[in-house]
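Notes to self after the call with IL:
- keep both proteins in one doc
- input above output, always
- annotate only the second one for now

Protein 1:
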Amino acid sequence: WSSDVCSSDLFPFSAASASLQCQDSAGSGEPASIVLSSERLIDGIFAMPFWIMLGVFALILLSLGWTYNTLVTLRQRCRQAFGDIDVQLRQRHDLVPNLLRSVKAYMAHERDTFEAVIEARNSAMEARDPQKRIAAENALSDGLSRIFALSEAYPELKASETFVDLQQQLSHLEDKLAAARRFFNNAAAEYNAAREIGRAHV
């Protein structure tokens, strides 16, 4: 090979590296382009860990983003389920006074039962603590069940269209409440499980 082939003007290397490449290529009989390809391959090998680290970092970000979006979705589902329960409970609260008015004329001596139902309704509407509200709602359910059970002894009351209509509405609400509570419990369980999985990943 002539000195022009290995000239430093043809390759962007220092004079020392150009001289070294001349000697190597002259000694081995291989063209200078092979030397350049080898150096590029070596540079690519050293650059690989950076791209691997960048890929791992991107996967971590995607995983965190997916976990966050899942938690937000499940939390919103829990709030929606709780809101459905609250709406149906308010509807039941509105029906209770009408029910009591329809039965008082037939069950005048059941004053204690009526007072217990009224007290439970008022406590449920005024309660701010979740546990107290649950206790009041359960007491209201028990009071309503007692009224319906006592109505079996009053044929005239059972023949009243107003009472029958209110009883059907309340029974329908109880079924909707039971379904809403099951949905809320499932949503809460999924949300809590997702939170634990997210904490484990972090």
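Protein 2 (the one to annotate):
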Amino acid sequence: DGIICNVGPSQSIYVVRRDGKIFEVIQTPTLSIINNFLDKSEIDLLRDFMRIKHRLNNNSFLQEDFNQDTWFYGDPVIESLMINKQKVLEKYSNCELLPTFSEWKFNTHGAEVESFSKREACEFTCYCVIDFKTKVDWTFYIQKQKINLKIGDALFYEGAKNHYYRKPLDGEYFADATLHYVKKGGKYQDWIKDKRLTYGVYK
């Protein structure tokens, strides 16, 4: 059950009641901001998991990134999150989804994201904020919009179509996870599991 309030020709605010909680969703045809996408127990678990794995990491980095920050593809914990959030995200995609792959990153001071669009396996993308310690908001620029998310919030959008970027990170760190899906029965459905044999393994 929910309440829908139209605020413009291309944007609506959805106040969705689920498990006794209220969620505010700002939605355009290809972009949804989902507040409180992750609950406190999920945030606490993922925060500690990422901090520990970042400290122990010595071989998994995003090579094209100037900082070469900690980056993991197909991590079993984040893959599990991707699978378990599928049904929730189908409310915003208006279609059945198939999980493809996940990735997470522990960004450090000076990290910068250049504008780019994702590949076929990223037809639908859910970007989740896990934890951060910054001096100012690390703004997400997409569809000519400036978006700032809180811990536990998510940004759901058509990953294969949208370009985005972020300016250098002014802060200590910013941990995030990204979940990717394709439309079931769509032209990219062959990318289920990112064409791997199973979830939770590197391609």
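Annotation: Confidence is low (pLDDT under 50) at residues 1-18. Helices lie at 40-56, 76-84, 86-93.
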